[in-house]
Amino acid sequence: MTTAVMQTYARYNVTFEKGEGVYLFDTAGRRYLDFGSGIAVNSVGHCHPHLVEALKKQAETFWHCSNLYHIPDQQRLADRLTANSFADAVFFNNSGNEAVEMMAKIARKYQFENGHPERYRVISVEGAFHGRSLAMLAAGKQEKHLIGFGPQVDGFDQVAFGNLNEMRAAVTPETAAIIFEPVQGEGGIRPMDPAYVKALREIADEFELLLMADEVQTGVGRTGTLFGYERFAVTPDVMALAKGLGGGFPVGATLATAKVAAAMTPGSHGSTFGGNPLAMAVANAVLDVVLADGFLDNVKAMGKKLTAGMQALVAAYPTLFVETRGLGLHLGLRCQDTVVGNDVVVKAMENGLLLVPAGDNVVRLIPPMTIEAAHVEEALTILDTSCAQLIEQGTGG
Predict the structure, then answer these.
(1) What CATH class has 50-290?
(2) What is the pTM of this model?
(3) Containing H/E element for 296?
(4) Which helix (H) or strand (E) holds 177?
(5) Going by DSSP bridges, is the β-strand pair 175-180/210-214 parallel, antiparallel, or unpaired?
(6) Which one-letter DSSP state was computed for residue 358?
(7) Which end of the chain is more exposed for a tag (fewer CB within 10 A), N or C?
């Protein structure tokens, strides 16, 4: 098919035209249970009435205001994010990539302002995904993303997943910060070990580095706590949010402690659309839902129920799956090396369930955090049917 849209995506052969709660409907009217959430974006489902009302109200007032002027809902959202996190200050941008890229800028500027302009390098962890800009491709160092975009942007080093000896050895007089994901999303739903994250904090403190948490996927309730770092009882110095923060509306945020944020002086960073009134209205509405009594408890409960069902599938189909992974409702099924994970995604889609592939041959289950027990059971039933069909077709045999 000839199209004017640049061909950067290998799209599935389906077109959606409507969303309601945890379901999407295609142009033929068929309903799909959405356990992909736009890749962890539709945090409170599709067309949540509270978000719709907030957006409509703001759209009828005004859409855009330059950051040359005060934007009251920015202040309100920043106050709420800092009141519920380690941070003291927030910068609003438009995407996860922008939020993470700003962390790298903050690391350099912080070290510069504190008398160490030679410190500019950032250490990441193998399997990381931090965005698609040239700098963040260099931070992630995934070959499939780097091909054709060389040479790599300088300033980023990487060590093996979970290897503290490598992490410590990688620190040089030029190191400014360490970046990590509490649970690697694109890397295959790989949670960090709590002891490892604690050690990262200790290394950062020892060498006067910043510890930067990329919570673009794990933030805003996805792991069962408001932020993923809370699962490890370790606080970072800087954190990036996006995806679920807007519930489907583009918004990102970079959070920092007061000491770190002080390095970002007027003129050191900016954004035309970042923190615009529409985004702020919707993000505040998302927090209304996520911070409500019992919401995060439900995320934990549904996560446990879904994990138990996934474990049962691993036991029932050992030629298809190796293990379950994840925290809260940020979950994955690791497929056997003889199985193509995307085949599971396609078969489930044929049966009315949307899933998302990830690295390390993992299939992600990242549903809206508003799911109920009946939705979990529906998803597991469809998955069971799909697995049986794959086995019958010879997959995993």
Answers:
(1) alpha beta
(2) 0.95
(3) helix 295-316
(4) strand 175-180
(5) parallel
(6) E
(7) N
Quickly count: other Cβ atoms within 10 Å of residue 235's Cβ: 16
**Token couple for 275:** 């923190």
- Rounded to an integer, what distance in angstroms lies between the CA atom of residue 14 and that of residue 160? 38
Which of 359, 339, 356 lies closest to 348, judged by CA? 356
Tell me the fold of 16-34+294-392: Aspartate Aminotransferase, domain 1 (3.90.1150)
Q: Which H helix or E strand runs over 362?
A: strand 362-365
Within 10 angstroms of residue 284's Cβ, the number of other Cβ atoms is: 17
Query: DSSP state, 319?
Result: T
Round to whole Å and give the CA distance between 254 and 235.
15
**Positions of CATH 3.90.1150.10 in the chain:** 16-34+294-392
Sheet holding 16-20, edge to edge: 16-20, 23-26, 31-34, 353-354
At 312, phi and psi to the nearest 5?
Answer: -65, -35
> 373: which residues sit within 8 A by CB, 6+ positions away?
302, 305
Give tens-digit pLDDT for 47-102: 999 999 999 999 999 999 999 999 999 999 999 999 999 999 999 999 999 999 99
Average of per-residue pLDDT across 115-138: 96
Q: Please, are residues 230 and 256 in contact by the beta-carbon 8 Å criterion? A: no
Parts of the chain belonging to CATH 3.40.640.10: 50-290
The CA distance from 126 to 163, in Å, is: 10
Q: How far apart are the C-alpha atoms of 218 and 339, rounded to whole Å?
A: 27
How far, rounded to the nearest angstrom, does the alpha carbon of residue 393 sit from its chain's CA centroid? Answer: 34
